[in-house]
Amino acid sequence: MPAPVISPAEKAYIQDGVAHDCRADGRSRLEYRHLVLESGLLSQAGGSARCRLGETDVLVGVKVEIGEVEPDKPNVGRILCNVECAPSASQQFEGRGADDLNNTLTQALDRIYNGPQGGFDLEKLCIIPGQSCWLIYIDAMVMDYAGNLFDTIVMTTRAALQDTRIPKTEVQDLGDGEFEFDVVDDVEEAEPLEGWDDSPVVVTLYKIGERYIVDPTMLEELCAQVILSVGVNKHGQLCGTQKSGLGSLEPSLLSDMIQTATQLALPLIDKLDTKLHDDYEKELDKRRKGEHVEKMGFFAAVI
Amino acid sequence: MLRKKTFVKRTRKGNVIKVVNEHYLRDDISCSSQLCTKCPHFKDPVLSTLPRSTSTLPNHYLVPDTNVFMNQLDLLEHNAIKDVVILETVRDELRHLSMPVFNRLSTLLSDTTKRFYLFANEHHKDTYIEKLHGESPNDRNDRAIRVSAKWYKDHFKDHGLQIVMLTDDRANREKGAAIGLKAVSVTDYVKGFVDVPELADIVSHAKDANAKKEDIMYEQHLSPTQIQHGIKKGTLFQASLQVSTHNIHEATVSGEVDGEARTIYVLGRKHMNRSIQGDIVALQLLPASEWKRSASMAMEDSDDEEAGVGDGTDMTSVQDGPGEPTAKVVGIVRKKWRPYCGALARKSVHSKPGSTAKETVIFRTMDRRVPPIKIQTTQAHALIGQRIVVAIDSWPVDSMLPLGHFVKVLGSSGDRETETEVLLLEHDVPYQEFSKRVLADLPSEGDDWVVTDQHVHHEKRLDLRDRNICSIDPPGCTDIDDALHVKELDNGHFEVGVHIADVTYFVKPGQAMDEEAAGRGTSVYLVDKRIDMLPSLLGTNLCSLRSNVDRLAFSCIWEMTEEGEIVDVKYTKSIIQSKYSFTYEEAQTRIDDERMQDDLTRGIRRLNKYAKRFRAARMARGALTLASPEVRFQLENDSQDPVDVEMKELKETNALVEEFMLLANIAVAEKIYKHFRNSAMLRRHPSPPASNFDQLRDVLHEYNLDLDLQSSKSLADSLNLACVDGDSYFNTLVRIMTTRCMMQAQYFCSGTESEPEFRHYGLATPIYTHFTSPIRRYSDVIVHRLLQAAIDPDAVYGKELTDMAKMKDQCDVLNHRHRMAQMAGRSSVELYTNLFFRGKTEVEMGRVIRVLKNGFVVLVPKFGIEGIVYTNAHDSPFHLEETSNQLVANDVTIKIFGHVKVQITVEGDQDGMRQKMKMQLVEPVVPGVSVQPTLKRALPESTIEETKKAKV
């Protein structure tokens, strides 16, 4: 696997650009690339979304299944994550080349959703305590990789969770403390996943030289000494941080970066939610009139 | 145009999957009217140019909604209803709601005279609609129906044709009217058919909201999930409900109590909880303290229409002793409702003759195990005395009886043709003529088919045409399945051959004829006719082993020593020529006539000698000789009316044929089981549970007799000992009653039972099958195929012989058909018995075979009939002594085996009911119960044994 490489000249050019607040593609340090987001494009999935941030392209499908509760947690459901980088996304993912990255991303995603910071009330995913619960499978597929992968994955996942509908269940009391449930076959009856809007987005800051940037391209990523991912929810609450990269951070810079991340996250969440909400309203409106709803699907990439 | 349809499905393992179907819309779907020139017609249009009009509506096409099909299918099947557009939406809904209805709809659609057209509205670009947000699937489908009806309306607006949407949903009618549709209810629609008044009766009354609200009479059934769970947990169990023929409020199911297979009773209407004969029900076992003894009550007809449900105990004798396991029905897993034959109860018709007002009347089913059905009719008076068919619509909790509707008239009751049709319908016997498709599978040569060189030289057939083969059958038999021969060999041994008609040469798997035969399962023998399993060209000609023509056969050939020891057996396809078709009587005469010394006769004598030897050996192994009171009618040639009745007589030659058939069947069973361990079709006869004999043994104890149930051998021995001096019929009677304690023999697939279970109890053989009558039994056809596959290494056979599940299903079908054929045969005998007794009054000696609380069952050996003598239910001088199982009135005791003299009459049609034989007690004389015989003929007074009661 050829590792991505960068020449000293390129590196110097990028570092200089960051220092002057004018990056190679003309953005400022805390500016995002163009974002395309659409949810509900996979009709077979419980929920789905696709996001294209610059050239980075992520598709997330959510599958809901019925499973048995774990004996030590008899009244909660589970969220299970999996991230996979398509070999076509980048040359370095060929063969088993993406395994490490897949594991890292899967674990990171898992940490976000399995815990109170994820925003979900896992007890609501329990159907019959001690017996059955919903399992939410989040499957993220990286279709194209051009930097800032994790932020994109989390954003897409959040949109997919917004789109997710859980089939309605009707629990029957059979007496003697025994319960059984039926699943309503009408998809219209299915209910949205509560708490999706409390789930965080992640803003990852990349320290290049003395400054940090958001939403790096692939080459910019290669120049970063320190990478700090910050999870923030719509209330501005910090939901988790993760530091990677070989460099070190001053405590003052750390708190400065967290603050910046929070400030960036709030308008981002707002924009995303507005977009998702508008799309949903438009769709509902069409369906009220009995009109056919077309999804852009993969044509969205062209726009 | 591409659309998607999405729904959530639960998998068998309990998980959920979201199913998304792609759905393509078209612009070339035709309206299929002969009027229309706009649509592309790829096929000839179905709907006529001039559909009918009614008194209220101009010429119109009909667009019914789903519920009309669910509830009023009989109406739509009526000949007056034509030119109907069936929407795809409706058909899809029906497929999910009810498979039987869906199948009937498919039949309707394929009937070209009905002019029903399936309009694919779900795929038409103008009539496809998406489900609105918040709209229920039902509302969406109703809207789809309206949209399509509207499309049709607009489509024909220039032709002056009306489109009528038929729906009983008022909201739907109103919404239809709002978009300019003509929408009517079924009742209103039918009113327009002035010329076809019976249509009004066919309209079903599934949900009659106006009916007076009776009190809730039954417990609500549990939901399917609750039932499933209960069965899984073991609190409930599932079984098929078998209602007693004597008492409609008494039923049994087989189940387990404490791990032991037991017969479990369901007593009283309330506990039966709206289940009907044959329903698969979920039951809950009652606590042992509530167990009852079987009521031993016979229900007379027509005494209970409006009686209360009771708590189920009033019908049963309450007593403290240990009862039988008793259960109650908590839900119905699968309803076995079907159209029922029967007649109106005259008493329930209250209107004046000639009235055409609608009234509710009671319909009584022929099947005594099915409760009366309430129906509404305007033609009650016209229907009295007719045999009619009625379907059940529903049985709500607040109705004592199920509600139904009239379907059709079969004919007047008492008419032989009608009654025969009724009994065929009631026993689910397919009696239609063979279809063209089936007949097309017959050899094209027809009657001229002959055995050719091809058969002789190229099919591995043994040429046995030189053997002295003969067949022995009842007189008039045309479907000769089997023939026999014996030949002395050079080594002093004998070659004995059993030759069975080679049906499988003509009937190949996958043919329409094969499917038809598999569905029919067996030929059905009625008193006056036979319903064939195979077309008669095969059954009575090409397969039938008639004398002096070459025929193909499947032969079992043994080499035996002089003493009947089997040295060798082989199986082969063969060509034979029977030299003579004997009747049992002719064969017997030949055996007995010393002067006859030809080869054929000597052969029969030898076979007879062997047969006696085999029989003796079989008896020694413990084979049972059982008896059943079988009779034969002498029919008058022209009218087919019975003129005399006699008991069937068995000759030695019957036994001869039987022995060799058993020999062949057992040999073949061993052979096919050896080759097909998992998928051989065999026949077994389970040992009867000891509890079946309790009552009989109790009675026999009084005669110091007992039945030893250790094995069939010990039972056979004790049956031989069960004699009473001076009572020659006593032993036969015991055997008849023993027969009724037996289990039914069944076909089964060898892979579904363990080897010890293969046993045939009655024949005392470890393995058995049916091989010898392929013309009249389908089981034998399968066995022939299995045997062929077993003996011929080159035989090509499909999965049908090795698939255990398929074989098991086939066994189930055959068992059902077999039972039904037996019962139809019995009903036919009963019918002829009734015809025989019509207008006669006979006084005969009879034997008591069962004592009930309010009567007793009498068997009249002379006619082989049995009937219930009712001891006047209300004010009976009799009372039942439970311990000794006797009816006692002053100094007269009625007990099992007792002699009585009864008067037999056939009650006419006074109640519009089935013709019923009535037995009344003549002797012993009991005031209030017995009658003076109204007969002129003098009676032999010899054999009446006084049954005075001994001092208790």
Automatic annotation (TrEMBL), chain A:
GO terms for molecular function: mRNA 3'-UTR AU-rich region binding. The keyword Cytoplasm applies. Gene3D superfamilies: GHMP Kinase, N-terminal domain (3.30.230.70). One of its GO terms (cellular component) is nuclear exosome (RNase complex). It is found in: Cytoplasm; Nucleus, Nucleolus. The keyword Iron-sulfur does not apply. Keywords: Cytoplasm, Exosome. It holds the Pfam family RNase_PH_C. GO terms for biological process: exonucleolytic trimming to generate mature 3'-end of 5.8S rRNA from tricistronic rRNA transcript (SSU-rRNA, 5.8S rRNA, LSU-rRNA); nuclear mRNA surveillance; nuclear polyadenylation-dependent rRNA catabolic process; rRNA catabolic process; TRAMP-dependent tRNA surveillance pathway; U1 snRNA 3'-end processing; U4 snRNA 3'-end processing; U5 snRNA 3'-end processing. InterPro entries: ExoRNase_PH_dom1, ExoRNase_PH_dom2, ExoRNase_PH_dom2_sf, Exosome_comp_Rrp42_subfam, PNPase/RNase_PH_dom_sf, Ribosomal_Su5_D2-typ_SF. Residues 31-167, 199-262 form the Exoribonuclease phosphorolytic domain. Belongs to the RNase PH family. This is Ribosomal RNA-processing protein 42.
From TrEMBL, chain B:
Its cofactor is Mg(2+). PANTHER family: EXOSOME COMPLEX EXONUCLEASE RRP44 (PTHR23355:SF35), RIBONUCLEASE (PTHR23355). InterPro entries: Dis3_CSD2, NA-bd_OB-fold, PIN-like_dom_sf, PIN_dom, RNase_II/R, RNase_II/R_CS, RNR_Ribonuclease, Rrp44_CSD1. Keywords: Cytoplasm, Endonuclease, Exonuclease, Exosome, Hydrolase, Nuclease, Nucleus, RNA-binding, rRNA processing. This is Ribosomal RNA-processing protein 44. PROSITE patterns: RIBONUCLEASE_II. Residues 297-325 are annotated as: Disordered. It comes from Hesseltinella vesiculosa. GO terms for biological process: exonucleolytic trimming to generate mature 3'-end of 5.8S rRNA from tricistronic rRNA transcript (SSU-rRNA, 5.8S rRNA, LSU-rRNA); mRNA processing; nonfunctional rRNA decay; nuclear mRNA surveillance of meiosis-specific transcripts; nuclear mRNA surveillance of mRNA 3'-end processing; nuclear polyadenylation-dependent CUT catabolic process; nuclear polyadenylation-dependent rRNA catabolic process; regulatory ncRNA 3'-end processing. Residues 461-793 form the RNB domain.
